[in-house]
Amino acid sequence: MKAAVLVFPGSNCDRDLAVAFEQAGFDVSMVWHKDSALPEGVDIVGVPGGFSYGDYLRCGAIAAQSPICQALAEHTNRGGYALGVCNGFQVLTETGILPGALLRNAGLKYICKTVDLKVATSDSVFTQGYNAGDVIGIPIAHHDGNYFADDATIAALHDQDRVAFTYGDNPNGSRDDIAGILSDNRRVLGMMPHPERAADDGHGGTDGTAMFRALAGMLAEA
Amino acid sequence: MKARVHVMLKNGVLDPQGEAVRHALGAMGFDKVEGVRQGKVIDLDLAEGATEADVTEMCEKLLANTVIESYSIETL
User: Fold this and answer.
1) CB of A126 closer than 8 Å to CB of A174
2) Which residues of A are designated catalytic?
3) Residues of A numbered 65-94 whose beta carbons fall under 8 angstroms of chain B's beta carbons: which are they?
4) Cα B51 from Cα A211, distance rounded (Å)
5) Cα–Cα distance, A21 to A26 (Å, whole number)
6) What tens digit of pLDDT does each residue of B11-34 get?
7) Can you tell me the distance from the alpha carbon of A216 to that of B37, in angstroms, rounded to the nearest whole number?
8) Which of A7, A104, A136, A165 is the most buried (most CB within 10 A)?
9) What is the pLDDT of residue A79?
10) CB count in 10 Å sphere of residue B22
11) CA distance A145 to A84
12) Nearest-neighbour CA in chain A from B49: distance (Å)
């Protein structure tokens, strides 16, 4: 299985995400934002956390216009898998690959702590290693994680079982406590919490490991 | 041509920064402030031949996120 992790100026979780993929058994290549193509045969693209382009204009807005994000959109349009974490989630909404937007946290503060995250559906390659209703501990670290979408979009996400994770104690004002969502084909996941920061004993928690293991298991079969 | 683009959060989208400014003004004794919305102003210096339609396209594609923001264009 091959994973590609995108690297923008200002990305800072790219290496952590690559290590989490590697530990699950993926061959990982790092792909620079100016590249216009993904490596041949990539199964999943990781869009990492950080502060791409210094969060100028809006978080993820300038990264979304980079050449590699064109290739990312083509990959997901063909049914390719992608995982966007934190700033990566913001990039996925700015490209329009996922619906909605991430606003400034309702409390205006940057929040860095481990939160209780409820698995809202186990029906995806990302979440099948959990049971719906499981509560896992995953760190968040963001200033703009307040998920917003219009009423129709929120209703569609619920109706189509596309809310992947919700917060136990909403830290940022996200609508309906939404922490992560799936694309309509369930092959793209965007989430504000960092599963790659809970994927090694040294992290103080390993609740994120099941996501990378499940991904590796599914993609190995495919 | 010069153009000025105003970008504001849409009505109905919570503006926590605007709210914080409103609270601060209230605490300073400006007790007649009923609401504050904070936005962005982007000034563009444009070459000969640029049109307002070009600026509209820039707004739609980059300068505003129309999921959460509205924009208006002023030519200067």
Assistant:
1) no
2) 86, 194, 196
3) 65, 93-94
4) 49
5) 5
6) 989 899 999 999 999 999 999 999
7) 46
8) A165
9) 96
10) 18
11) 13
12) 24
Tell me phi and psi for residue A142, to 5 degrees. -155, 160
**Rounded to two decimals, what is the model's pTM?**
0.95
Tell me what the mean pLDDT of segment B39-68 comes to: 97
Residues 6+ apart with CB under 8 A from A221: none
Helix H or strand E segment including A18: helix A14-23
**What is the value of ipTM here, to two decimals?**
0.88
Question: Which chain A residues have a beta carbon less than 8 Å from that of B44?
Answer: none
Instruction: State residue B34's pLDDT score.
Output: 95
pLDDT over 90 (residue B39): yes
User: Are the beta carbons of B44 and B56 closer than 8 angstroms?
Assistant: no
Backbone angles phi, psi at A188, to 5 degrees: -125, 130
| Interface residue of A148, A154, A175 to substitute, partner B, most B CBs within 10 Å | A148
3-state SS, residue B15: coil
pLDDT exceeds cutoff 70 at A156: yes
Residue A175 has pLDDT above 90, yes or no: yes
Chain A residues whose CB is inside 8 A of the B63 CB are 57
Q: Read off the pLDDT band of A72 (50, 70, 90).
A: very high
What gap in Å lies between CA A159 and CA A150, rounded to an integer? 14
Round to whole Å and give the CA distance between B59 and A71: 23
Length of chain A measured in residues: 222
Identify the CA nearest to A28 among candidates A71, A95, A83. A83
Output the pLDDT for position A218: 85
Instruction: Tell me what the mean pLDDT of segment A48-74 comes to.
Output: 97
Side chain identity at residue A34, one-letter code: K
Instruction: Kindly state the tokens that stand for B48.
Output: 């000969």
Helix, strand or coil for residue A10? Answer: coil
The candidate with the shortest Cα–Cα distance to A4, out of A42, A52, A32, is A42
